[in-house]
Amino acid sequence: MPSGRTSDSAGGTVDFDAVYQGVIEPAVREAGLAPLRAEHTASDTVVSKVTFERLVLCEIAVVDLGCANANVLYQLGIRDGVRPDSTVFIYAESASLPFDTAVLRALPYRVKSDGTPENARTAGQAIADRLRLALSQKPKDNPAFYLARGSADIARLATDVFRDRVEYSAQWSRRLAAARGKGLAAVREAEQDMGALEALESGVIIDLLLSYRAVKGWTEMIALVEHMPKPLAGSLLVEQQYAYALNRAGKDREAESILLDVLARHGPSSETCGILGRVYKDRSDLALKVHGKMVALGLLDKAIDAYLKGFEADWRDAYPGINALTLMELREPPDPRRTQLIPVVAYAVERRIAAGKPDYWDHATRLELAVLAIDQEAATSSLASALAAVREVWELQSTARNLRMIREARQQRNQPVHWAEQVEQALLDRAQKWSVIR
Fold first, then answer.
1. Does residue 437 belong to any structural domain of this protein?
2. Would 66 disulfide with which of 38, 82, 95, 118, CB 3.0-4.6 Å?
């Protein structure tokens, strides 16, 4: 909406600040939402990047069509093109609108001669009802905006290839890249130098979040999400990473609750189900120490099922598939479904590599498949490719951990793979020398 007192096309005046404070803000709060106003005057010529990001990321938008403000209409076009069916339209009855609002089901409000709202309570109630209706409907978001719904490619690219796909401040990109190489304290220092989060581009904030993940700053990730602008905090990517950090910080119940809510609202995805699988896997490891094998086995099966749902949600993403296979191998006795799943996961990763855009996880998946198949030659080749494609030290540690679990499970079944430990060690050696040779 515009700001301040503005003359409408019929010669009257609308006090948009009074409309916001007396009608819109109370209605938004009554609907259980948090109001965030994007203010623009008639002299505005540019929509800032921060405003653009929040305009697209917010769960619901309220657009005042009164006075036919050009900037408001421009932003309406952006919003409607990216997130249709989640916008509430209002206008002053005295205003002459540039197009027919019937199709938009716009809600009118009346203003007095001084431009302040006349029927604030009635208009506010109508807006609150419309907001609640918008919240109750399943959104039909356009996936064009990267952060709102994740990548148009497979979901895990939202985290692993984020820096390659989203343009933002080159200065902070370089600063955070250097900080990740130095560790947690350096990333903290970079955040302190950034100043207020509200003034930062969303890309910078997301890179900071993923930088904390790279250096295992779980409590810092949690704090960052809880203090970042709410539209960004409510995006799919951030909700997934928030749950991931909560689980790693020992708050697995909170993580599970968030992920189940995300699944209810957005449906299954490889990323959401993959993180949920990790929650159940970690819970299974703890249960084995505290409650015994049977409880741990039940949780391990839940983890396998979560990973399988993630793989079935997007067959192009082999990552949850290989995690399901690894846990099937760890199960005692091993899950017989793994023999059917191995060729499917192998095909998925081979197609990714053949497409010419493989990343570290594609080669790591190939490596784990080779170990599962006890194919030393394929494992050696995949190891070399993975070492060449690694981007973060935690990737190496994660793969080494999975291979160690496979090796130990087989040793307990008297099926040792003697060369497998050498593969693990090569990954760990590269991780130890990460800051020196990368």
1. no
2. 95
Q: Which residue range forms the structural domain that includes residue 233?
A: 153-266
Let me know whether 243 and 158 are in one domain: yes
Please indicate, yes or no, whether residues 106 and 168 belong to a single structural domain of this protein: no
Parallel, antiparallel, or unpaired for β 13-15 and 5-7?
Answer: antiparallel
- Rg of the chain over CA atoms, in angstroms? 26
List of residues 6+ apart from 127 with CB closer than 8 A: 23, 24, 27, 28, 62, 88, 90, 107
Beta bridge partners of residue 87, listed in sequence order: 61
Predicted confidence band of residue 315 (pLDDT cuts 50, 70, 90):
confident
Dihedral sign for Cα atoms in the order 256, 259, 261, 264 = negative
pTM of the model: 0.69
CA distance linking residue 118 with residue 115, whole number of Å:
9
Q: Report percent pLDDT > 70 for the chain.
A: 85
Q: Which of 83, 81, 131 is nearest to 105 (CA)?
A: 131
pLDDT digits over 365-389, tens only?
A: 999 999 999 999 999 999 999 999 9
